[in-house]
Structure formats: structure tokens, C-alpha cells
Design a protein that fits this description.
364 residues, alpha/beta, five-stranded parallel sheet, Leucine-binding protein domain-containing protein, Leu-bd
């Protein structure tokens, strides 16, 4: 082969390598571990569907040269050991640029060592756990407010607004339950009160009969609950059956949409929310979401909307950074978008100087 032939082959090879590199850099890989199966699957499925709703739209309409989003989703069934397996695969094998929308406190806590070792950004987890609010050993960005703020609102509702005196707690026995339990008892203590009774049940079960027996032994006016929609709805329905008349409240993780759909009779139930009701909220992004959902089988609920908002914020931030994506740039861009993007701020009805996200309420 002549020297010119060799040079031509080298040119073709170099061009192919360059094109492959540019192509690889034009995709931002995002990994999501969530419950697609098990007794809490509706939450994970709806978060995933909401995120995909926006990511698909973004990929179809992005500007030429802009990075595409590749969402890789693995099922953990809301079981921490499965989340660890998924996170290892996503971070160390699949080399994702960020973990996104991981569902749950115990699941997030279980992968803390992976986050600390890899420094991969941990974006928009579906939890308000305190250990994620101001971490110093790994990179996290929260869109939802803290469980402490939700717990404060529940106790404010029970004690300050409803004038209740005797409050009991129904707690999922894991890191999620412990986190919110601490916030609830702290909010009660600030008002000179203690829980009348604290009952517990195991995660991913609806084994609430023992907790119900304990609750029946005390005259309770309000029950603050921590768990998912399956055990909480069963507890409320059984409590109504045995004549335990009280008010109920729980934090956003339970999923008001799924919880309310399973309730019987007319119990008084409050669920704190971290996003506004997408069916009635005002703003350009609310309108866009409702229009997007109209052409699908999805419902206008808070979990689908939260997944959609998470994806929207991520795509706006990615467009502020050069490729390949840099963790520091991405985290800074997310914070800047949250503080200055008028489209996202009008969804949460944030005032110009307001940085803390609000808590909303849903009632049954």
C-alpha cells in the first residue's frame, strides 16, 4: 500500500474515533433506582413516567448539538440491598453522569458509601431525609423540601389549628420512619407535648394489627403516620371498622393519590405535599404538563408531576454546562436554575427573595 493509502486509512480511523467521541459526549447518562415492583410500586412507576414524559419531549426538540438525555431505570422494589446493587451497576459499570430520582430514605441511606466514594451527583431523590439536606461527604441536589418541614406542618395542623392534645404516631420501622419520627416528636416538644403512643410496622408489609391494638388502648385525637399508601390505608380502614375515631396525617412520600384511592368511608386525612396540585396550579410549566399528560394514560397527580419537574430542571441545568458534563458545573447550574428560573419558580409560587420551598396540603 502506498504512503498515501496509509495516510488515508489513518485519516478515516481518526475521523471515526473523533465522531464516536463527540457522539458519546453528546449524551448525558442518568441512572434511576426506584420501585417498579412491590407494594410501593405505584410511586416509583409514576415518578419514572413523569421524568420520561419530559426527557422524551426534550430529546425530540433539543437544539442541534445539545446533549441528549439517556435515562437508565432499574427496579429495587423499595428494598435497600437492591438499591445498592443497582447503584453499583449504574455508577461503576454503566458510568452514569448522575443518579437521579432515587426513591426512599432507607434506599438512599444504603448507597451513601457509593455516593461518598464515587462523588457522582445525587439529584432530586424522592425523600426529604435530613442527612440529604446539607451533606458534606457527597454531592446532592434536592428539589423537594425536608421531612422536618413537612412534620412541622402536620403538628401545626393538629395542635395549632385543630386544637388537638393527644397525638399518636404510626411509624415505619426503618430510617424513613426514624427520620420523620424525630421531627414529629421535636415539633410536639416545642409545644410542651409528647406522643401518647408510638406504634410501628415493618417496611414493605401491611402488618398493622399489632399497631392497631396498641392504638386502641389510648384515647388518641390525631394520628401522625409515616409509611407508604398500602399499610397506611389498611390502618385507617381497620381503625374505622373498630371505631377508633381520630384524625390522620402523613407526609408526601405516602402518595396522597394512591392513599386516598384505597380509603373507605369518610376519615379525616391530611397529606402534606412538596409540589402543588398539578391539576390546578398556575404557570407556564403547569400548563405544559397538563397538555403533555392529556395525550397519555397518566393521571394529574403529584408523583407524576414531581418526576416531570425533576426532569425539566435537570435539562435546563445541563444546557448551562459544557460537555462532557462536569459535576460541579451541573450542581451549580441546578441551584442557579432553582433560584432564578422564573418558569420553575412560578410553579412553587416563590417570592423573589424566597429560597426555601413551601409545603402544600391535600385532604381526604
Amino acid at each position: 500500500m502506498s504512503i498515501f493509502g496509509v495516510k488515508f486509512l489513518l485519516f478515516v480511523f481518526a475521523s471515526a474515533v473523533l465522531n464516536f467521541t463527540v457522539s458519546a459526549q453528546s449524551v448525558v447518562k442518568v441512572g434511576m433506582s426506584t420501585a417498579l415492583s412491590g407494594p410501593a410500586k405505584e410511586i416509583g412507576q409514576q415518578l419514572k413516567a413523569g421524568a420520561e414524559l419530559h426527557f422524551n419531549f426534550y430529546n425530540q426538540h433539543k437544539a442541534n448539538g445539545a446533549a441528549a438525555i439517556e435515562l437508565q431505570v432499574l427496579d429495587d422494589g423499595y428494598e435497600p440491598h437492591k438499591t445498592v446493587t443497582n447503584a453499583r451497576k449504574l455508577v461503576y459499570e454503566n458510568k452514569v453522569d448522575a443518579l437521579f430520582g432515587v426513591m426512599g430514605t432507607p434506599t438512599s441511606y444504603a448507597i451513601k458509601p457509593i455516593l461518598e466514594h464515587s462523588k457522582v451527583p445525587f439529584l432530586m431523590p424522592y425523600t426529604g431525609a435530613e442527612f440529604l439536606q446539607e451533606p458534606h461527604t457527597f454531592n446532592v441536589f434536592n428539589l423537594r423540601t425536608s421531612y422536618n418541614k413537612e412534620a412541622q406542618d402536620i403538628i401545626r395542623y393538629f395542635i395549632d389549628e385543630q386544637k388537638l392534645k393527644r397525638v399518636g404516631l404510626l411509624i415505619q420501622a426503618d430510617e424513613f420512619g426514624l427520620t420523620v419520627e424525630k421531627s414529629l416528636t421535636r415539633a410536639l416538644a416545642e409545644r410542651g407535648l409528647k406522643p401518647v403512643v408510638i406504634t410501628r410496622f415493618r417496611r414493605n408489609t401491611d402488618d398493622i394489627e399489632r399497631a392497631l391494638e396498641q392504638a386502641q388502648q389510648h384515647k388518641i385525637e390525631g394520628f401522625a403516620m409515616v409509611g407508604t399508601y398500602t399499610p397506611l390505608s389498611k390502618f385507617i380502614n381497620r381503625a374505622m371498622e373498630v371505631g377508633l375515631e381520630t384524625q390522620y396525617a402523613t407526609v408526601s412520600f405516602a402518595s396522597s393519590n394512591e392513599l386516598f384511592a384505597r380509603l373507605k368511608g369518610k376519615p379525616k386525612v391530611l397529606v402534606t405535599e412538596v409540589v402543588p396540585d398539578p391539576a390546578i396550579c398556575k404557570g407556564k410549566l403547569c400548563d405544559t404538563f397538563r397538555e403533555a399528560v392529556r395525550n397519555t394514560t397518566l393521571s394529574h397527580n403529584e408523583q407524576v408531576f414531581e418526576g416531570y419537574l425533576n426532569a425539566y430542571l435537570l435539562t435546563t441545568a445541563i444546557q448551562q454546562c459544557e460537555l462532557p458534563i462536569d459535576s460541579d458545573c451541573l450542581l451549580n447550574a441546578l441551584q442557579q436554575e432553582l433560584e432564578h428560573n422564573t418558569v420553575i419558580r412560578e410553579v412553587f409560587m416563590l417570592q423573589p427573595a424566597q429560597k426555601k420551598l413551601p409545603v402544600y396540603r391535600s385532604f381526604f
